[in-house]
Amino acid sequence: MRDFSTDHRWLSINTATVRRQHGTEVPLPEIIEACARHGIRAISPWRDQVAAAGLDNVARLVKAHGLELSGYCRGGMFPYADEAGMKAARDDNRRAVDEACALKAACLVLVVGSLPGALAGKAAHKDIQLARNQVTDAIGELLDYAGSMGMPLAIEPLHPMYAADRACINTLEQALDVCDELDPMRSGALGVAVDVYHVWWDPKLKAQIARAGKDRLLAFHVCDWLTPTADLLNDRGMMGDGVIEIPKIRRWAEAQGFTGYSEVEIFSTGNWWQRGTDEILSTCIERHRSAV
Amino acid sequence: MRDFSTDHRWLSINTATVRRQHGTEVPLPEIIEACARHGIRAISPWRDQVAAAGLDNVARLVKAHGLELSGYCRGGMFPYADEAGMKAARDDNRRAVDEACALKAACLVLVVGSLPGALAGKAAHKDIQLARNQVTDAIGELLDYAGSMGMPLAIEPLHPMYAADRACINTLEQALDVCDELDPMRSGALGVAVDVYHVWWDPKLKAQIARAGKDRLLAFHVCDWLTPTADLLNDRGMMGDGVIEIPKIRRWAEAQGFTGYSEVEIFSTGNWWQRGTDEILSTCIERHRSAV
After folding, report:
1. Residue of B174, B202, B229 lying closest to A232 (CB–CB)
2. How far is B182 from chain A (nearest CA, A)?
3. pTM, full prediction
4. CB-count exposure of residue A244 (10 Å: 0-12, 13-18, 19+)
5. Peptide bond into B74 cis (omega under 30)
6. How confident is the model at residue A20 (pLDDT cuts 50, 70, 90)?
7. Confidence class of residue B22 from pLDDT cuts 50, 70 and 90?
8. What is the pLDDT, as a whole number, of residue B201?
């Protein structure tokens, strides 16, 4: 396993980690400059942040600072209640691929969605199997487009507590079943994003990471699971502050040949989002060395 | 599948559903009398409620009202940080078996526990595999005792969001792996409690219910998953108010020959626990007929 203790060359910052300060949005260009100032070599920005700053502007800033994108957040939200919804999701995901290409991202991360309307509190139906079928079909279709553009798609299995509203792919095994179905030859165009927050609890995690193998391990995300966890979405912990055995999971991934970035993605309304960008980044660097 | 639409003879009330009113504890004898008044034939009480009311007293009341116990809540919390913790858990679980026998419960439900100390916010370690090994060993030991007393043990896989602090058995597949290991001959002494809240998201649920079969399906619990869910523990919904396809899951269980009670277990600080016992029970009866 790579030694992270002496530098942070394999640290990437998912820009959600520093996007809010005391309730105010921090513009992406500021985040990029802060990361560069801290010697951070990679980021993973969100589409709405990129849109607000302008795609060309962001591409220019990323290049000027010599940054890489460990991923681009995010495509997905595929399930639909009607034809118009299907078309809107397809078009939007193609645009996400285009943007990821413009930014030279390592992959487009897919948060696949689930019951249409559930995220707004009003599910159009309860048939999660239907949502899963729509997701598989939509990824298959997007794969043709993304493959032609050379942009790998990384399915991110989300914690089962998001199964109703954010993603109906909830285990690494399930994500890899989709990969096997859509890309049986392991072309490299389709794989998974392993976020320890979503998968740490899974008794089959080690076996499924081995099943994924190097060619399907496209991204590795870290944060920590706090006890207690105060909120289902926005109470993620800094690495080392919770109960996830992050180094053990990283070892499993690296045993398969994974050599990419360790991307920090923390949503934290009550704690980290109440602090300044420099403090958060300094802490990420320190914990990357000591707890990842 | 049994027709629940015309009566509620297969409704059981987990007494947690009505144990609090506006922050005040409702004594178990009051709950028992309310259930009897509503023509409910079965309950599943909690150990602390039984202790507060007195085991003999509760046994007498249950008998006087002709109630059955669809289960007894709960044994488990097996993982330990030291020898004393191991012994305390073992002794306490044997007492739980004794109480379940005194009350003639259909099974003792096991919420198996996870990282020692995590429920109090201070995990003694992060090694969930160690906790899982301790759980399997402890169930194996308890099985000898419970088997000799004729009390079936029902492992309840808990939602993965409780993996750190409440239960390190998080899928039906994992629970059945433990059953296979400890009771390969399917003696009937060890099985599972399927609570739709904990397992509804699982893409392998149908297959694992079939794997369980009639002899391992010892209990069936219902409530609903709300969108949004405001709290990890105490924001469970009334059947029909959320996104779980409860009848579909019940059909899968009954296709295996399950003929037991449908036990309503709702923890709801913000909604149901702010209402009166009669209103809650009436709603449970109505939803049992229309949404289960």
Report:
1. B229
2. 18
3. 0.98
4. buried
5. yes
6. very high
7. confident
8. 98
For B115, the closest chain A residue by CA position comes to: A243
**Interface touch A243/B115, C-beta < 8 Å:** yes
Dist. CA B237–CA B222, nearest whole Å: 10
Alpha helix positions (H), A103-168: 128-149
Nearest to A163 among B115, B122, B201 (CB): B201
| Calculated CA dihedral for residues A180, A182, A184, A185, nearest 10 degrees | -140
DSSP 8-state assignment for residue B224: B
Nearest to A164 among B174, B227, B232 (CB): B227
Residues 6+ apart with CB under 8 A from B110: B74, B75, B76, B139, B153, B154, B155, B156, B193
Q: Are B208 and B173 in contact (CB under 8 A)?
A: yes
Query: Are A115 and B244 within 8 A, CB to CB?
Result: no
Determine the distance in angstroms separating the CA of B284 from the nearest CA of chain A, rounded to an integer: 20
CA separation (Å) from A148 to A96, A214, A232? 14, 22, 37
Examine the pLDDT at A56 and tell me if it is beyond 90.
Answer: yes
The nearest alpha carbon in chain B to A205 belongs to B129
pLDDT digits (tens, 9 = 90+) for B132-176: 999 999 999 999 999 999 999 999 999 999 999 999 999 999 999
**In which band, very low, low, confident or very high, does the pLDDT at B23 lie, cut at 50, 70 and 90?**
confident
**Residue A254 pLDDT grade (very low, low, confident, very high; cuts 50, 70, 90):** very high
pLDDT-based confidence at residue A219 (cuts at 50, 70, 90): very high
Domains of chain A plus CATH, in order, are 11-291 (3.20.20.150)
Query: How many Å is the maximal CA-CA distance in chain B?
Result: 53
B55 to chain A, minimum CA–CA distance in Å? 33
Q: What is the ipTM of this complex?
A: 0.97
Percent of chain B with pLDDT strictly greater than 90: 99
User: Parallel, antiparallel, or unpaired: how do β-strands A42-44 and A68-69 relate?
Assistant: parallel
Q: Do A227 and B118 touch (CB under 8 A)?
A: yes
Chain B residues in contact with chain A using a Cβ-Cβ cutoff of 8 Å: 115, 118-119, 121-123, 126-128, 132, 159-161, 163-165, 170-171, 174, 200-203, 225, 227-229, 232, 242-245
Q: Do B227 and A171 touch (CB under 8 A)?
A: no
pLDDT confidence of residue A160: 98
